[in-house]
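Fill-in record for DDB1-and CUL4-associated factor 8.
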Amino acid sequence: MAETDRAGPSEERTEVELEEKPYHDKTSAFCEIRKRELGLSQPTDFSRRVGGSEALVKRMTEYGKLHGHKGCVNTVCFNSKGDILVSGSDDKDIIFWDWAVKTKTLSYNSGHSENVFQARIMPFSDDCTVISSAADGQVRVGKIKEDCEVSTKQIGSHRGRVRKIAIEPGSSHVFYSCGEDGLVQHFDLRSPSPTKLFICSSIRGNRRLPLNGIVIDPRNPNFFSIGGVDEYARLYDLRMHHQTDPLIDQPVELFCPNHLIKSNGIHVTGLSYSNTSELLVSYNDELIYLFTKDMGMEPDLQSVPQDDSEKNEKIKKPQVYVGHRNAQTVKGPSFFGLRDEYLVSGSDCGHVYIWRKKGGELICMMHGDKYIVNCIEPHPYFPFLATSGFDKSIKLWTPTAIRSTPLPRNAEKVMEANKAGREARVQSTPDIIMHVLRLQRRQAFAYIERRPAAHGSDGEDEGREGILVEFSNDEDGEDEDPRGCSIT
């Protein structure tokens, strides 16, 4: 190289300083890679640390889109190995994807007569057994044959929609369902019919409580939690329901932020367990809360502390996560990272939110849908995400950005609009609510700005802003009125 082509000492030093700056963080993925190269960390420790590295999480960017559904995508779920993604939609189809190459490998009609709300591949089934639930109240199982033909049959039912099913950890046969009829059922694919465990009843009076979610404790499958149309997440011990009369509602503990106790109009939309039995609960038009085991209350309303009780100061408060909006659909939060270092959730503003679990700081905010991000599915082993919402495509996210991505320029405005929407709902003034919803939509669309298309993009987003303002329909049909999709 000629002398004149070489950078001067000061330029070299500046360049090196800029390059080495990320390495100062002991949790940096690059630091962990260096340790692995030197043999200073074990393979298992390396994968866990790198998989949860904040340096990688902040580089999340859109990897691509999966096109194939003809309706809103209500569920996305990885198989146990993480190489297959399964999805269900308002079009009643269930699709298998080789997501890494963005290819559809199998599509079949679920047999449901209404919108599919959840579809999951049973573990240890060679990815040939799929269970699903839907708005028609049915629970179905699909069996994939060697010639890729699929046979489906109904194995259970509820009176009303069935939003969630939960697979027992480590089992290839056992799972649970909950529905709007308040019924919780236990399924074993080796048995001809499900077992009715109990009907969830309201704390205030003896009435059925419509349920939105059910999750099983990964550390002890005897414990599971449900949430529905009131403010309490309920913890149950399966062993108690095998020893008592059927259909008797006997929760072990209740979980609820103190300020929401005995509140009206607030209900649980989604729950999630961490690998250490922490319980994450999301509320409609409220916030997301993280509970530990010692935050449970006795399942007796009379024992619940009042707002003016002196005991409030001694009660351990859950960690709270703010910024998003959860009003128009039934959204569920998830843990993210191999050690559950982060939390993720969709939002009515069309963004994907990622918070640091400890402290609740928002570290990432990505535009994921033209209207609402409904579903977020973390990959079981790597820092990848699959998301879906009112768009008819599925978005894939990987930490492949060249550099850390800061929060969007209009992040504060979007979150302020979300907050104003929650406050307007509390005030229950229709004119204010409509004004805030219009403001929220404008702020969400404002982020669809002139940014370069992500790697692998098919150009779908070009001219997107004009399409949204005019609400015209394109070939993909992703601009249709969201009111035609699944809204509570």
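KEY FINDING: DSSP finds eight helices and 28 strands in the chain.
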